[in-house]
Every structure is written in structure tokens, then in C-alpha cells.
Amino acid sequence: MDHKLIDVAKRSGVSPATVSRVLNNSSLVTKKTTERVMKAVEELNYYPNAAAKHLRSQRTRTIGVIVQDINVAYFAEIIKGVQNTAYTLGYKVIICDADNNPEKERDYLGLLMNRTVDALILASSSLGDEVLIELADKGQCIGLIGRRIAHDNIPCCLTDNVQFSSDVVNHLLDNGHRHIAYINGYPDVMDSYERLEGYMKALKERMVPFRPELIENGNFSEEGGYEAFKRLILKGIPFTAVYAANDEMALGVSKACRELGIAIPHKMAIVGVDNNRITQYIIPSLSTVNQPKFQLGELLTIKLIGKLNDQPDDGERIMIVQSELVVRESSSRQAPD
Amino acid sequence: MDHKLIDVAKRSGVSPATVSRVLNNSSLVTKKTTERVMKAVEELNYYPNAAAKHLRSQRTRTIGVIVQDINVAYFAEIIKGVQNTAYTLGYKVIICDADNNPEKERDYLGLLMNRTVDALILASSSLGDEVLIELADKGQCIGLIGRRIAHDNIPCCLTDNVQFSSDVVNHLLDNGHRHIAYINGYPDVMDSYERLEGYMKALKERMVPFRPELIENGNFSEEGGYEAFKRLILKGIPFTAVYAANDEMALGVSKACRELGIAIPHKMAIVGVDNNRITQYIIPSLSTVNQPKFQLGELLTIKLIGKLNDQPDDGERIMIVQSELVVRESSSRQAPD
DNA sequence: CTGAAAGCGCTAACAC
DNA sequence: GTGTTAGCGCTTTCAG
Hints:
Mean pLDDT of chain A: 94
Number of domains of chain A: 3
Structural class of chain A: alpha/beta
GO molecular function, one term (chains A, B): transcription cis-regulatory region binding
Oligomer: homodimer
Protein name (chains A, B): LacI family transcriptional regulator
Largest interface: A-B, 39 and 40 residues
CATH topology of the largest domain in chain A: Rossmann fold
Keywords (chains A, B): DNA-binding, Transcription, Transcription regulation
Organism (chains A, B): Cohnella endophytica
Pfam families (chains A, B): LacI, Peripla_BP_3
């Protein structure tokens, strides 16, 4: 029932080598021979055995993507970018859902080591720098999304966290807000750090004093944003706007406001990050930042596949893509006096 | 840099066969030998070559899942169920995002044919019955989620569409609704058909006349639901409740009501299906049906891996899991008089 | 342009 | 318990 290459060879009266050449588009085969071989392939319903190909050729034309959580729209979009790009370049993609478990994430690195994939993309990886650098030093082909690392052989694709955060804060300042709280994500993550940086940068440029009391941590979760906002309120310091480092936390803030009877945007403006679909449906709709997630996956995939095929690498190792502020109801008004 | 099994054998002073036995937990190795081998594995930082294993053993311990669209929460949850289960049973998972493209879906079947995966799970597949039956007849191991097929070798995991749809309609009838519209999904899909069946069944049992004019099609999309609702209104037939075959369409109905100034739930009750996260955030929140998506993936995965290992198959080929009606604001009131 | 043949790295008979 | 060895199905030199 399962035919092999040699069966095709016999049926078409040529050698296995020729069949292989036809199947791999080597140009050095007559049209006539090609046709004969293809006919036999059809008739036998032949499929090349992937394992044998991989073993012999020492490559799989497959790249892996490890994401924290496949349920999160941010990652799902990145996957689309990777998958579509890889598909057009003739590569397959293995998607690995670490399911918020760093141990699983580490497990998946084995796919590289045992040559199941030719390259690996890590989106918002929780792995330590040492691990990644060690892999790269061993000659493994890896790339990062949403993270930067100091190693010549690791391409990184990032969004302009500082820039868009600064845009967000400038937008709020333009609307007359002078006391803007910032709710941070996981404290040790680059995204959090850079977004804070953009926040501070904008304040500084507009000469609005930075007040550390207006910074709280929300761990990127709705619950975390909710609690962080309540802590801010309890401090008794006046503020009229919140910049949350992602939409989940912004949703938490929105919920807290509703419970506390604080009108949005009249008494409190909110801006998040990610352009989560919910931000459009909730009332009031939430302002946010739209990151080109698809593009993050796309650019890195092109780069990595280029590396795999020893293409001359023109571009930058660190690729930064632009994001866009999306103003909705939650920050559409002037600050209260 | 890359060591092979034979290197480990040499270093530990045993034969390749023994190393293989140690690595694959064959019990017939002394503890002492095992330790020596493992030491060499450590020292050499040895990783077995997957392609060679696959080629030699004729299996990959990998199962594939093909989903229509990885962005859709319904599928993401199913994937979690498959992945977690496979993981604990020592299987890897390849996730394939067909990206709403039937051609890609068909492409992915090649993974089975070329032995990249041992089994394939198709969630809400758009493939024709013939294709699936042909695969199964060839001895390929496949399983379906959200679809039924007449073939002894294809296990299917489904939700109780008829049952929960009947529950939905009974709930609306209990609230005094007598004119309940139904918005269907893709007309040729089993889910649509069975949900319609449940709707009709409940009406019949409660002796409420079925009116075909109250049925419209919305293709499972928000836009489709929106348009379908408008068509229903234009007909001028009075109705006070809508059962939409999924939440996307229910969102469309909700939007249309807002635009037309129809108060929910006072003038119009709405119930959807899927327990999409947005249904909780929108105002008014939407009643829906919570399907055990994780379980769908879990059950089928257990079944398929069992088949791969020739375990005696006790259970049913067709596995049906129970769903639960979640009543929220959009259907929380008595029908208007 | 085509064929012969070696061998990718591993496992599973089969011996001992 | 452990070793020897054939061979999984393919690609790729090297000849011709």
C-alpha cells in the first residue's frame, strides 16, 4: 500500500536517482523523463517518506514557533505571520504552545537539538539569556520576538515600545491630563521596562514631573490591573488618566472604575496596549495601541529562512516595527479641571 | 559538535544496541550499565536524531491537529485539550492552522501520507466525506471533532448540539417567548443542522408552531448575524427572541439591536453559542452555551493514541460531550406581552 | 542527462 | 544482559 521511491523508479524504468531529481526539481532531467516519472508517481499515489528525506538531507524545511499561550490573540497573530510567510517560502511550521509553563518551553528546545526543526522562533520567551546564547553558540538557528539579546547570531524582532508609549502619554497630555498613572506588566520583562521608559520620556519632554507613586504593577493580567488601580486610588493622590501596559490590565481598570462609580472618560481616561478585540466591544470602548503582530512573525521568519539558506544578510539583526495609537472613547475627552 | 548514538556507545564501552535500550527504557539493562550510558549521554550532551528514529521505527509519536483558524477561541481551546493530553501520554503535537483555506487544509493531509505524524485530528473539517473515508480505508489514523462520519475506523468527538439547542429554546419558552427566531451558521455544516434540529424539537415538544419565516442564515460571522437579523425585522413578523447558532452572530444581532433602538433583553432576548469571552464584557452581557472544548480534544486524543498502540477499544466510536447553558443579561427577562 | 552505490543515525531481530 | 548486523527510504557524489 505504501510505495517507495524505488517503486516509482521501477515503474517508470529509470533509476532512483532520477526519480529523486525529478521530485526535487533538479533541472538536469529531460522533460520526457520527468513526465514518465510523474506519471508513475500519480499511478502509485506515491508520497516521499519525510523521515528518510530528513535523515538523508539533514534538514527538515520546518521551523518551530514557541509561544507562551496560544489562546492569547497577540501570539495567535504572530503565528499567522510566521506560518503564512513560511508557507510561501516552502517551509512547514510546528507551533508549540508552552501553555504558560516555562518547563514546557524548555522541553520544546529539544526539537532543535534533535533536528526536528531547522530553526526556532521564540515569542516572548521566558528562558534565560544564557540558555539562548548557548544554543546560538552551538550553531542552532534561533530568533526572538519581543525580546532583545546581545548575540550576533540571534535576530530579534521587536515593536517600538518606547515610541508608542511616548505617543500614548503625549496623547493624554494633549488632552490636558497632568497626572497620569502607569500600570506595568511583569516587572522583569523587556516590554514592561521599555513601556515605562517611553512613559517617562514623554513626561520629561513635556516637562511634567514624574511621580513614582503613580506607578503600579499589574502583571499583564486583568485581575492585576484591577488591583493595581485600586491601590492607586487608595493612595489618595489625584490622577485623571491611566496608561496600562496591556489591554488585559486596562480591562481590569475599566472594571474597577465601573465598580467605584468613576466615569470613563469624564473622570478617568484609560489607554491600553494590544488592540485586543474586546476593547472595541466594551462600553466605553478602550483606546489602545495596535502592534503589527503579523509583521513581527513575518520579518523574523524571512530572516531566519534566509540564514538557513546562507543568503547574504543585508538588513539589521534587530528589527523594529512601528505601532499605532488607536484612540477610542476611553480617552476621547479633555481632562477634568 | 553533534554526537551520535555510536559515540555514546564508544564512550561508555557498550554496544549501540545497549545505548538504544537504555534510551528507550527497555527494562533489560543492568542498573550499572544504564548509569554508565547516561553518564556518557550527559558528557557528550547527546540528543537522538529524530529523523533516524522515525525512519527506523516507522513512527513519530506525533499527532497533528488541523484547525480552521487558530485565532478562534473555540479551536484554541481544543488544541489545548489535545496538546495537554498528548503531552502526558508522551506524544508531540503539530498544530496546523488552515487559516480558513480549504486548500491548505488539504495540503496538511500530506503530513499523514509522508509519515510526519502518526495520526491526524481534524476539527470542524471542510473536507468532503470521500476524502476522509479514503484516508481511513488506506489505514491512516484520523479522528474528527465536531463532525460525524459513517466509517468504523474514524472516531468522532462531538457536542450535544440537539440537546443544548433544545435547552436554549426551552429556556426562552420558559421566559414566555413564543416567537423565537433562529439564525443558522453555514447551511451545509453538521453543527448548523443539528442546532436547527434542537430548536425544532423544543418547539414541537412544547407545542409551539414552527414558522420557517423565522429562520435565517448568518454563516457563523458577526456580519452575517447582523444582516440576518435585519432581514428578519424587515419581514415584519413579530418575534421577541433570537437564538443564534454561535456567539459571533449573536454579537451581530446585538449590534443591530443597538442601531435599531431595540432594547435587550426587554424587547428582544438573545442567546448564542460558544461562550466567547466577549459575551461577558459586552453590555448587556450575552447568554450563551458553554461547550467543553478542552474535553473534545482530550477525549479524541486519548482514543487515537489508544488506537496507535493497539489498545483494546472499549468505548464508543462516537463520543458526545455535554454542554451547558449560561444565562446572562440578554435573556434574563420575561418576554414582553 | 542518467545510473550505481554509499551511507545518513537509529532500532530490532537474532545470536551469544 | 549485551553485542552484531541488516536495513528503514532517501539523496548525492562520482562515473559514464
